[in-house]
Design a protein that fits this description.
Belongs to the germin family. It comes from Hibiscus sabdariffa (roselle). Residues 52-198 form the Cupin type-1 domain. Helices cover 19% and strands 27% of the residues. By secondary structure, the protein is an alpha+beta fold. The chain folds into two domains: 46-168, Jelly Rolls, CATH 2.60.120; 175-204, no CATH class. The strands form two sheets. Strands 1-2-9-4-7 form a five-stranded antiparallel β-sheet, with no helix packed on it. The longest helix is centred in the first third of the chain and has 14 residues, at 2-15. It is globular, with a radius of gyration of 22 Å. Residues 1-18 have low confidence and may be disordered.
Length: 208
Amino acid sequence: MMFLQILFTFSFLFSSSNALDFCVGDLNTPQGPAGYSCKNPEAVIVDDFIFSGLHVAGNTSNLTNSVATPVFSTQFPGFNGLGISLARLDMAIGGWVPMHTHPGASELFVVMQGTIRAGFISSTNKVYIKTLEEGDVMVFPQDLMHFQFNVGKSPALAFASFSKASTDIYIMDNAWFANDLPVDILQKTTFLDPDQIKKLKGVFGGTY
């Protein structure tokens, strides 16, 4: 009985008075695997929980004719420790997001305007693909390769929510062609012609 009373007491202490409602990120501290250190609660203000700027379209003048505007814990300290984040995706006509993944994070993708063809590949190599219209929502499960294309006749806009307060994006094309990985290795692992590999390295800024 005494043991149960002690257990109940510790459970109460850790679930109430010692619990933190939030952990607003202190951007002056290093970011570790668990995020930023918590800002002193006495210094937290309402603006720490507000982000403005997602009404501004991103510049799509680039190779893919698309751009993502991230709202991670670095841009929005209120996200720190909550396991969520957000991004705005602008896609010009014909724009696309190459095959990529977000390690450790699932993605909820909401089309706000335009027509976007999107899909992902499962670990058994099954392809799930769909043309999405305004108001449609698609989920990309954690760690799976996925992509988006603007297949409409006007610019497209979407918002993506992630299950991490800050997430990386690993683009397959960059992993292959935006570095100094030797051509002979890429030839054997991708079955591409060496001249094509050199051309793609030139496009993505890699060397050989």
